[in-house]
Amino acid sequence: MFKLNLKIALRNLWKNKGYTFINVTGLSIGMASCILIFLFIRYQLSFDEGIKNEDRIYRFVTDWKYDAFDDYSNAVAIPAVKTVKNEIVGIEKAAAIFRNWNIVRVKDATGKDVIKKEETIYYVEPDFFEIFRMQWLYAKPTTALNDPNTVALSETAAKHYFGNAQNAIGKNVTMGNKTLLKVSGVFK
What we know:
Layout: H1 2-15, H2 17-45, E1 62-65, E2 70-73, H3 78-87, E3 97-107, E4 113-124, H4 128-131, E5 136-138, E6 150-154, H5 155-162, H6 165-168, E7 172-175, E8 179-187
Parallel strand pairs: 6-8
Antiparallel strand pairs: 1-2, 3-4, 3-7, 5-8, 7-8
């Protein structure tokens, strides 16, 4: 029975080639569109995966208005963070993040300066580690950046600079030519 129905269906498809082409093309385009939309939505929803309280975390940006166009920037004036904390009701914590590129120098076992490649470096305030909870290997997030001129490194960066994460604690890192920072914590 099934064989007979399949044979009749194929005969009809072969007889009406124009309609068959239009139907198959439409079905293919529809299925491809659905798959692309699904992949796009899944990609967009993946950004906050793994972050606790992601529904309560927001990004503060600057809206630049020009004559010819509008622009958005992730750069915000430093005093804005303090103003946001103090004047907007409902804000529990706020932290500034600054991305920079610099040359990093560390001392090797003999005390000689070793220049590491230019790195992408993020400067953050101590509240950053209370907003984005990370697993700490050495030190505590509440005290890691309390002292001036201290730095917390990721485990990958600590291994890159000092061989392993445990060796990094208490060592100095020089940013650029003269900014000396002491490693006060390592996170995963």
